[in-house]
Prior knowledge:
Number of strands: 6
Shape: globular
Radius of gyration: 15 Å
Amino acid sequence: MKHAVLVIDIQNALVNPVPKPFEIDAVMQRINQVTKLARSINTPVIFIQHECPNSIVEHGTEVWQLPSDLEVDATDHIVRKTTPDSFLRTNLEELLRSLGVKNVTICGYASEFCVDTTVRRAAALGYNVQIVSDAHTTHDKEHASACDIRKHHNATLPSVTSFGSKITSIPADNIEL
């Protein structure tokens, strides 16, 4: 079954503030590792970018752009979104269907918002989901560290079975596309 790699919200405004997200440099290296693997076997790579007018992620601004450390190829796809759900009011589902995708591999920012929401929505739509367990991140919160938030999502999302789709959490070194 055909895969696609979804890279969510790795944008200058979200990954470069001070303090930076947890392990962001290592996370971006792992994302590059997964997307390089995907391209080598003709698996589609889709970068998803959040946008909101008059905000730090206003479409077209420098801070809305993908960071220069992120490896992007001319064959990659870009999807623009306005909510934590990468499918809501976007062309993502149409794109995945046109590419014959049945399985998605998800990484990016922020673990507890856009990554979590997109994983759940993908599973609800019938896609099997691989979360790249060490290639999603967030910032520390008052109630939990970013490390603990990532661990929590890696542990709990695979327990969601009611959608009928399989959700797994796998480190970048073990990803199979």
